[in-house]
Design a protein that fits this description.
Elements: H1 2-17, E1 20-28, E2 34-40, E3 45-56, E4 61-63, E5 69-76, E6 81-88, E7 91-97, E8 102-111, E9 120-128, H2 142-216
Antiparallel strand pairs: 1-9, 2-8, 3-4, 3-7, 3-9, 5-6, 5-8
Subcellular location: Membrane
Pfam families: EMP24_GP25L (PF01105)
Protein name: Related to p24 protein, involved in membrane trafficking
Amino acid sequence: MFARIAILPLLVAFLLAARSATALYFYLEADTPKCFLEELPNDTVVVGHYMTEEWDTTLQRFVVKDDMGIHISVREVKDDHVVTSSRGPPEGKFAFTSHEAGDHRICMQAKFDGRPAVQVRMHLDIVIGDAKPDNSHKDKSHVNDLAQRVRDLNAKLRDIRKEQQYQREREAQFRDLSELTNSRAMWWSSLQLITLLGACVWQLRHLRGFFEDKKLR
Protein backbone atom coordinates (compact mmCIF):
# COMPACT_ATOMS: atom_id res chain seq x y z
CA MET A 1 0.00 0.00 0.00
CA PHE A 2 2.78 2.44 0.94
CA ALA A 3 4.71 1.56 -2.21
CA ARG A 4 1.72 2.48 -4.37
CA ILE A 5 1.32 5.83 -2.59
CA ALA A 6 5.00 6.63 -3.17
CA ILE A 7 4.83 5.74 -6.86
CA LEU A 8 1.68 7.79 -7.56
CA PRO A 9 3.35 11.25 -7.41
CA LEU A 10 6.14 10.02 -9.70
CA LEU A 11 3.60 8.66 -12.18
CA VAL A 12 1.64 11.92 -12.18
CA ALA A 13 4.82 13.95 -12.64
CA PHE A 14 5.89 11.73 -15.53
CA LEU A 15 2.54 12.10 -17.29
CA LEU A 16 2.59 15.86 -16.80
CA ALA A 17 6.04 16.00 -18.37
CA ALA A 18 4.91 13.97 -21.40
CA ARG A 19 3.53 16.88 -23.39
CA SER A 20 4.04 18.08 -26.93
CA ALA A 21 7.17 20.22 -27.04
CA THR A 22 9.44 21.61 -29.73
CA ALA A 23 12.98 22.79 -28.91
CA LEU A 24 15.28 24.33 -31.51
CA TYR A 25 17.65 27.17 -32.20
CA PHE A 26 18.12 29.30 -35.29
CA TYR A 27 19.74 32.53 -36.48
CA LEU A 28 17.97 35.83 -37.02
CA GLU A 29 18.81 38.54 -39.51
CA ALA A 30 18.38 42.24 -38.76
CA ASP A 31 14.81 43.50 -39.27
CA THR A 32 13.85 40.20 -40.92
CA PRO A 33 11.28 38.05 -39.11
CA LYS A 34 11.78 34.32 -38.83
CA CYS A 35 8.43 32.54 -39.12
CA PHE A 36 7.23 28.98 -38.91
CA LEU A 37 3.85 27.24 -38.96
CA GLU A 38 2.26 25.24 -36.17
CA GLU A 39 -0.97 23.30 -36.67
CA LEU A 40 -3.16 23.61 -33.57
CA PRO A 41 -6.63 22.51 -32.52
CA ASN A 42 -8.95 25.15 -31.17
CA ASP A 43 -8.77 26.40 -27.57
CA THR A 44 -5.24 25.08 -27.05
CA VAL A 45 -2.72 26.83 -24.80
CA VAL A 46 0.75 27.32 -26.29
CA VAL A 47 3.70 28.52 -24.21
CA GLY A 48 7.06 29.47 -25.72
CA HIS A 49 10.32 30.01 -23.85
CA TYR A 50 13.10 31.78 -25.73
CA MET A 51 16.62 33.09 -25.22
CA THR A 52 18.31 35.40 -27.72
CA GLU A 53 22.07 35.82 -27.96
CA GLU A 54 24.08 38.16 -30.16
CA TRP A 55 27.65 37.78 -31.36
CA ASP A 56 30.18 39.74 -29.33
CA THR A 57 33.21 40.57 -31.46
CA THR A 58 35.32 41.31 -28.39
CA LEU A 59 34.57 38.08 -26.55
CA GLN A 60 34.23 36.10 -29.80
CA ARG A 61 31.15 34.29 -28.58
CA PHE A 62 27.38 34.65 -28.30
CA VAL A 63 26.15 36.55 -25.24
CA VAL A 64 22.79 37.85 -23.97
CA LYS A 65 22.48 41.66 -24.06
CA ASP A 66 19.63 43.50 -22.40
CA ASP A 67 19.40 46.35 -24.92
CA MET A 68 18.02 44.11 -27.67
CA GLY A 69 14.28 43.51 -28.03
CA ILE A 70 12.33 40.65 -29.56
CA HIS A 71 9.06 41.20 -31.38
CA ILE A 72 6.74 38.19 -31.29
CA SER A 73 3.58 37.85 -33.37
CA VAL A 74 1.14 34.99 -33.91
CA ARG A 75 -1.43 34.96 -36.71
CA GLU A 76 -4.05 32.50 -37.88
CA VAL A 77 -3.14 31.53 -41.43
CA LYS A 78 -6.74 30.92 -42.49
CA ASP A 79 -8.04 34.48 -42.03
CA ASP A 80 -4.82 36.34 -41.07
CA HIS A 81 -6.25 37.11 -37.63
CA VAL A 82 -3.66 38.42 -35.15
CA VAL A 83 -3.73 36.20 -32.07
CA THR A 84 -0.98 38.07 -30.22
CA SER A 85 1.68 40.68 -30.96
CA SER A 86 4.15 41.90 -28.36
CA ARG A 87 7.72 42.96 -27.74
CA GLY A 88 9.80 41.33 -25.06
CA PRO A 89 13.31 41.22 -23.63
CA PRO A 90 16.06 39.06 -25.14
CA GLU A 91 15.14 36.25 -22.77
CA GLY A 92 11.63 35.40 -21.64
CA LYS A 93 8.45 33.61 -22.61
CA PHE A 94 5.17 34.16 -24.42
CA ALA A 95 1.82 32.40 -24.32
CA PHE A 96 -1.38 32.39 -26.33
CA THR A 97 -4.54 30.35 -26.82
CA SER A 98 -5.68 29.25 -30.26
CA HIS A 99 -9.24 30.38 -31.03
CA GLU A 100 -9.66 28.43 -34.27
CA ALA A 101 -8.28 25.08 -35.40
CA GLY A 102 -5.69 25.20 -38.17
CA ASP A 103 -2.24 26.53 -39.01
CA HIS A 104 -0.79 29.38 -36.95
CA ARG A 105 2.17 31.48 -38.11
CA ILE A 106 4.60 32.28 -35.27
CA CYS A 107 7.13 35.01 -36.13
CA MET A 108 10.17 36.24 -34.18
CA GLN A 109 12.11 39.40 -35.06
CA ALA A 110 15.13 41.01 -33.40
CA LYS A 111 15.00 44.76 -32.72
CA PHE A 112 18.26 46.70 -32.23
CA ASP A 113 16.82 50.23 -31.65
CA GLY A 114 19.11 52.10 -34.02
CA ARG A 115 22.42 50.45 -33.17
CA PRO A 116 24.29 48.33 -35.74
CA ALA A 117 22.81 44.92 -36.34
CA VAL A 118 24.82 41.84 -35.44
CA GLN A 119 24.39 38.12 -35.84
CA VAL A 120 21.70 36.81 -33.52
CA ARG A 121 21.03 33.27 -32.35
CA MET A 122 17.73 32.33 -30.73
CA HIS A 123 16.92 29.27 -28.64
CA LEU A 124 13.21 28.46 -28.68
CA ASP A 125 11.24 25.88 -26.73
CA ILE A 126 7.51 25.64 -27.52
CA VAL A 127 5.11 23.61 -25.38
CA ILE A 128 1.74 22.83 -26.99
CA GLY A 129 -1.23 22.02 -24.81
CA ASP A 130 0.21 23.49 -21.63
CA ALA A 131 -2.27 23.23 -18.79
CA LYS A 132 -3.90 26.47 -17.69
CA PRO A 133 -2.86 27.37 -14.15
CA ASP A 134 -5.45 26.90 -11.48
CA ASN A 135 -5.02 29.57 -8.80
CA SER A 136 -8.09 28.69 -6.78
CA HIS A 137 -6.06 26.71 -4.24
CA LYS A 138 -3.08 28.35 -2.56
CA ASP A 139 -2.37 25.70 0.04
CA LYS A 140 1.20 24.43 -0.31
CA SER A 141 0.68 21.18 1.55
CA HIS A 142 1.58 17.88 -0.05
CA VAL A 143 -2.05 16.83 -0.52
CA ASN A 144 -3.05 20.03 -2.27
CA ASP A 145 0.08 19.94 -4.40
CA LEU A 146 -0.81 16.44 -5.55
CA ALA A 147 -4.40 17.53 -6.20
CA GLN A 148 -3.09 20.42 -8.31
CA ARG A 149 -1.00 17.99 -10.33
CA VAL A 150 -4.06 15.82 -10.89
CA ARG A 151 -6.04 18.85 -12.08
CA ASP A 152 -3.22 19.77 -14.44
CA LEU A 153 -3.15 16.19 -15.69
CA ASN A 154 -6.90 16.28 -16.35
CA ALA A 155 -6.45 19.51 -18.30
CA LYS A 156 -3.66 17.87 -20.27
CA LEU A 157 -5.88 14.89 -21.08
CA ARG A 158 -8.61 17.24 -22.29
CA ASP A 159 -6.08 18.88 -24.62
CA ILE A 160 -5.03 15.47 -25.92
CA ARG A 161 -8.65 14.51 -26.58
CA LYS A 162 -9.21 17.77 -28.46
CA GLU A 163 -6.10 17.09 -30.53
CA GLN A 164 -7.33 13.58 -31.33
CA GLN A 165 -10.78 14.87 -32.26
CA TYR A 166 -9.21 17.49 -34.53
CA GLN A 167 -7.06 14.86 -36.24
CA ARG A 168 -10.11 12.62 -36.74
CA GLU A 169 -11.95 15.50 -38.38
CA ARG A 170 -8.98 16.15 -40.67
CA GLU A 171 -8.80 12.45 -41.57
CA ALA A 172 -12.52 12.46 -42.40
CA GLN A 173 -12.05 15.48 -44.66
CA PHE A 174 -9.13 13.83 -46.46
CA ARG A 175 -11.11 10.59 -46.81
CA ASP A 176 -14.09 12.41 -48.34
CA LEU A 177 -11.79 14.29 -50.70
CA SER A 178 -10.07 11.06 -51.71
CA GLU A 179 -13.39 9.31 -52.37
CA LEU A 180 -14.60 12.27 -54.43
CA THR A 181 -11.38 12.27 -56.46
CA ASN A 182 -11.60 8.52 -57.06
CA SER A 183 -15.23 8.84 -58.12
CA ARG A 184 -14.40 11.60 -60.60
CA ALA A 185 -11.48 9.58 -61.94
CA MET A 186 -13.76 6.57 -62.46
CA TRP A 187 -16.36 8.63 -64.33
CA TRP A 188 -13.65 10.24 -66.44
CA SER A 189 -12.22 6.83 -67.32
CA SER A 190 -15.69 5.59 -68.23
CA LEU A 191 -16.26 8.63 -70.43
CA GLN A 192 -12.94 8.07 -72.17
CA LEU A 193 -13.80 4.40 -72.75
CA ILE A 194 -17.22 5.27 -74.18
CA THR A 195 -15.65 7.89 -76.44
CA LEU A 196 -13.03 5.41 -77.63
CA LEU A 197 -15.67 2.75 -78.36
CA GLY A 198 -17.76 5.29 -80.22
CA ALA A 199 -14.77 6.30 -82.31
CA CYS A 200 -14.02 2.65 -83.10
CA VAL A 201 -17.61 1.98 -84.18
CA TRP A 202 -17.62 5.08 -86.37
CA GLN A 203 -14.33 4.10 -88.00
CA LEU A 204 -15.55 0.55 -88.65
CA ARG A 205 -18.75 1.82 -90.27
CA HIS A 206 -16.78 4.31 -92.30
CA LEU A 207 -14.34 1.64 -93.51
CA ARG A 208 -17.20 -0.73 -94.27
CA GLY A 209 -18.93 1.87 -96.37
CA PHE A 210 -15.66 2.71 -98.11
CA PHE A 211 -14.99 -0.91 -99.13
CA GLU A 212 -18.61 -1.42 -100.23
CA ASP A 213 -18.28 1.61 -102.51
CA LYS A 214 -15.08 0.12 -103.92
CA LYS A 215 -16.83 -3.15 -104.73
CA LEU A 216 -19.72 -1.40 -106.47
CA ARG A 217 -17.29 0.44 -108.69
